[in-house]
Design a protein that fits this description.
Blueprint: E1 2-5, E2 45-53, E3 56-68, E4 71-79, H1 81-84, H2 91-95, E5 98-100, E6 105-107, E7 115-119, E8 124-128, E9 147-148, E10 153-166, E11 172-186, E12 189-202, E13 206-221, E14 226-234, E15 244-252, E16 268-272, E17 276-282, E18 285-292, E19 295-299, E20 309-316, E21 321-327, E22 340-349, E23 361-369, E24 374-383, E25 386-396, E26 402-412, E27 420-433, E28 439-448, H3 455-462, E29 471-483, E30 488-499, E31 505-518, E32 521-534, E33 539-551, E34 555-564, E35 567-577, E36 581-590, E37 595-603, E38 607-616, E39 621-634, E40 637-641, E41 650-654, E42 662-663, E43 668-669, E44 675-678, E45 686-690, E46 700-702, E47 706-711, E48 716-720, E49 723-725, E50 727-734, E51 746-748, E52 754-757, E53 763-769, E54 774-779, E55 782-788, E56 799-802, E57 804-805
Parallel strand pairs: 2-8, 9-47, 41-48, 50-56
Antiparallel strand pairs: 1-4, 2-3, 3-4, 5-6, 7-8, 10-11, 10-39, 11-12, 12-13, 13-14, 14-15, 15-22, 16-19, 17-18, 17-20, 20-21, 22-23, 23-24, 24-25, 25-26, 26-27, 27-28, 28-29, 29-30, 30-31, 31-32, 32-33, 33-34, 34-35, 35-36, 36-37, 37-38, 38-39, 39-40, 41-44, 42-43, 45-47, 46-49, 50-53, 51-52, ...
């Protein structure tokens, strides 16, 4: 730790002397303005303060202020060495910092240009550092020193879906399904268990199942820019096909990289003909499950770490089920100049029942940035009887994007069969336009020889399972574009896979939407959705068109049509969208079946709730309920909250025990413990949390309304925002002698926050008044006397309070 003298800085170096003769107040001799002589003066002692470095907010910690030698008007702040190491200074600057030997504190004041200023209004220590001394220059990129592993705690994220159906023959069936993640955080380690289960019951049968689909532990290795994982997982590879295994992996984490070097998160699009449940699986594991209303849907919050093929199932309330596959896309394997990116994995392939399905394997891949424009990469996958080697090169085309090409050679030997050798060639292209509303395009092509064998195919053959999915060629294209000025946005995706031993499959989807004005009609919207899928089992094509017209403040009426091989369906809708809830009522006709549906979603600080129902003229009825939320518990407190997907990062906010404080534009509120959890925190990116001061209750006052955190993956962050709750009143304070406290004396609450300054004749305007609450009046650098509020306090008139001699208690330290 080191001491920094405020007198070293011009803004605070000259104490100010006050001419009290100009003040028209009684008892001029007892006025105490000594603490105002020096700007930013802080009374010596310990304070819990947020740390602001060049506008960025670090986590709070206890800061000690000491009196300056020979001048009580100046205080010195002790900056601990561990805090100095987190400021993002260049190594040579950090190593050259001096220390105050008597306190062992960092001497930041000795570095030219560095200034420190306490801001007690926001309970912050403001540190300004010239960019020349900072190791990081990117204003949008948080230095590693700011990354926060959070605090220990337990968490549960869940997604429950239930429905009951009555058929046209009066038969009834009930089903409930759910999935989620439970876990613990201990230091930098995150222990996680993914679960899924379902129960179906009808007159004829009852079926239920529950399983822990994945149990694993991981931790970030921030200095190495990597992530260590132990347990059950899918092989996450840029070169080889994914499969499930039990083991360990060590890989550079793309989430720790700048945005332009990160991979893509998969998106799922489609059209629901009625209230429907959408389930996304990878193998037997449920990745995502939700309910959607009739019309086009787009799911984009699936974890970007997912790779390989995903199975999508759309279950309509009339029993119709759509099934299709999507291919996840990868950014070409590019690295910064001189940077090494790697992925290492070792373990044994295993199925969903945790049965080992193959011998031990090891895989590794490496990418090296040759210069600004070229990267080279390669890797291998080795096990008993199977070898795969890959090598490739990537080229940065500057304004035209990036392209990569690689070739993989695989050799497989199964029992007494001849060894098979084959090659697979792949070309990828991508361009990201962040400056143009996050436009993303991606295109990929892969060709595999008939003799090329993937690891999955090798494992199936080894166990005697016959496969008919010998891939020949795969085409993938994805494009998004938003023209905000024109009110237009579009999304396109196309995937086609040809096989050597079966018919090809393909899926195409397109979605376009447009906002426009027609005469006096403002804010009209129209959307067009096209989809086509083809496989061995079925071929499905559809066109959906919808038109929506504003009606009232937040209501809309609309028309939509849906066309597929079964005919045409027409529908009319009425919807209302508010901040905390929205609902949609629809009626449709066509294809020999008339129906009515309703869909309601409510967004609360504890969970997201959806209710849906439908009736068809055939007599069938259905009712559904969806609940998605989470629970986080730590030694600091606990709270129910909206869901953080897959046991992800979250931020716990403490408002000093004050309940009902609105956060993030009212999307979250603190509970009775004064705790709220924000589940939308970004990994390795700064997350701002602020109190919605416009929605604060009249008896609340925010002393600190904004905080910031940069959390590592899976962390439970913790931040405090200072809120005072209680009544406000004008009071007159008298001492036991009948005199008034000195003009300029400070009134502090039990938390040490200044809530008033004494004016002439003991006058003060107090905030945060509660029955039996206590305050301390301080002057002359000492706590002098105590105020105790009565149980019944008249707020409509000035009240006189007797200040009793101060005695140290557990409330005031």
């Amino acid at each position: 730790m080191a001491l920094v003298c405020f007198a070293c800085h011009p803004a605070v170096s000259h104490p100010v002397e006050f001419n009290l003769d100009v003040m028209d107040v009684e008892e001029r001799d007892s006025i105490d303005l000594s603490r105002f002589r020096t700007a930013s003066y802080i009374m010596p002692g310990e304070y819990l303060m947020g740390i602001r470095v060049n506008g960025r907010v670090l986590s709070e910690q206890t800061i000690r202020f000491y009196p300056s030698h020979g001048d009580d008007a100046i205080s010195r702040v002790c900056v601990p060495m561990d805090l100095a190491a987190r400021l993002g200074l260049k190594p040579e600057i950090l190593q050259g910092l001096g220390r105050w030997p008597e306190r062992d504190c960092a001497e930041l004041g000795g570095v030219d240009g560095i200034t420190l200023r306490p801001d007690m209004e926001t309970a912050s220590l403001v540190i300004n550092i010239p960019q020349a001394w900072m190791a990081y220059q990117d204003p949008n990129w948080a230095p590693i020193e700011e990354w926060d592993n959070g605090i220990p705690g337990a968490l549960l994220d869940y997604n429950l879906n239930g429905s009951t159906q009555k058929g046209r023959d009066s038969s009834r069936s009930h089903q409930i399904s759910g999935n989620g993640t439970a876990g613990f955080n201990i230091g930098a380690w995150r222990l996680r268990g993914d679960f899924q289960g379902s129960r179906q019951r009808s007159k004829q049968y009852t079926q239920q199942e529950f399983a822990w689909s994945r149990i694993y532990a991981y931790r970030p290795l921030s200095r190495q820019g990597a992530r260590l994982l132990l347990g059950e997982t899918q092989l996450n590879s840029n070169l080889f096909d994914s499969f499930r295994y039990l083991g360990a992996s060590l890989a550079t984490d793309d989430q720790m990289l700048p945005p332009d070097l990160r991979g893509y998160a998969p998106e799922v699009t489609g059209v629901a003909q009625s209230n429907a449940k959408v389930t996304v699986r990878q193998g037997d594991r449920v990745l995502y499950e939700t309910t959607v209303p009739p019309g086009p849907f787009r799911i984009s919050d699936i974890n970007s770490a997912v790779s390989g093929k995903l199975d999508v199932e759309v279950s309509e309330d009339d029993g119709h089920v759509q099934r299709f596959q999507i291919e996840t896309t990868n950014m070409p394997y590019m690295s910064r100049p001189g940077q090494l990116r790697y992925k290492l994995a070792v373990g044994r392939p295993a199925n969903q029942n945790r049965e080992m399905t193959g011998p031990m394997f090891a895989s590794g891949e490496l990418s090296w940035g040759v210069d600004n424009n070229w990267s080279t990469y390669g890797g291998s996958l080795l096990t008993d009887g199977y070898t795969a080697l890959a090598v490739g090169v990537g080229r940065n085309l500057q304004r035209f994007g990036v392209v990569s090409a690689d070739i993989t050679n695989a050799s497989a030997k199964v029992r007494n069969e001849p060894r098979q050798r084959g090659n697979s060639l792949r070309i990828n292209y991508a361009k990201r336009f962040d400056e143009y509303n996050s436009e993303i395009t991606f295109a990929g092509y892969r060709f595999s020889e008939r003799s090329f064998v993937t690891m999955d195919e090798f494992l199936d053959a080894r166990d005697g399972r016959l496969t008919r999915n010998n891939s020949k060629a795969v085409y993938t294209a994805l494009a998004n574009k938003a023209f905000l000025d024109l009110g237009f946005s579009g999304h396109l995706s196309y995937t086609r896979e040809d096989y050597w031993d079966r018919a090809s499959t393909e899926r195409f989807s397109a979605y376009f939407s447009r906002y426009f004005d027609v005469g006096r009609m403002k804010g009209l919207s129209a959307s067009l959705s096209l989809s086509h899928s083809r496989s061995d089992f079925e071929q499905e094509s559809s066109v959906s068109l919808s038109l929506s017209v504003p009606f009232g403040h937040s209501e809309r009426v609309g028309y939509d049509s849906f066309i597929n091989r079964d005919g045409v369906r027409h529908g009319a809708t009425y919807s209302r969208y508010e901040q905390d809830y929205n609902y949609l009522l629809s009626a449709n006709t066509g294809r020999g079946n008339d129906a009515m549906q309703g869909y309601l979603t409510a967004r609360t600080s504890m969970a997201d709730v959806s209710v849906s129902g439908g009736y068809q003229d055939s007599g069938s009825q259905n009712l559904g309920l969806s609940l998605r939320g989470g629970l986080t518990a730590t030694a600091k407190g606990a709270a129910f909250h909206q869901s953080a997907f897959d046991g992800g990062t979250r931020l716990m906010v403490d408002t000093d025990g004050v309940s009902g404080v609105p956060l993030q534009d009212g999307l979250a509120r603190t509970n009775r413990l004064g705790i709220a959890v924000i589940p939308s925190a970004n990994d390795y990116y700064r997350t701002d949390v602020r109190i919605d001061v416009n929605k604060l209750a009249d008896d609340m006052e925010a002393k600190k309304s904004v905080t910031e955190a940069t959390l590592t993956e899976g962390a439970i962050g913790y931040r405090r925002l200072s809120v005072i709750q209680g009544n406000k009143a004008l009071v007159t304070i008298r001492l036991p002698s009948g005199a008034f406290p000195p003009f300029g004396a400070s009134v502090l609450d039990a938390a040490g926050r200044e809530v008033a300054i004494v004016a002439d004749s003991g006058f003060a305007y107090l905030t945060g008044i509660q029955p039996d609450s206590e305050f301390v009046v301080s002057w002359g650098r000492n706590k002098q006397c105590r105020l105790t509020m009565p149980r019944v306090f008249p707020l409509d008139q000035r009240y006189e309070l007797q200040c009793q001699p101060f005695i140290e208690s557990s409330l005031f330290k």
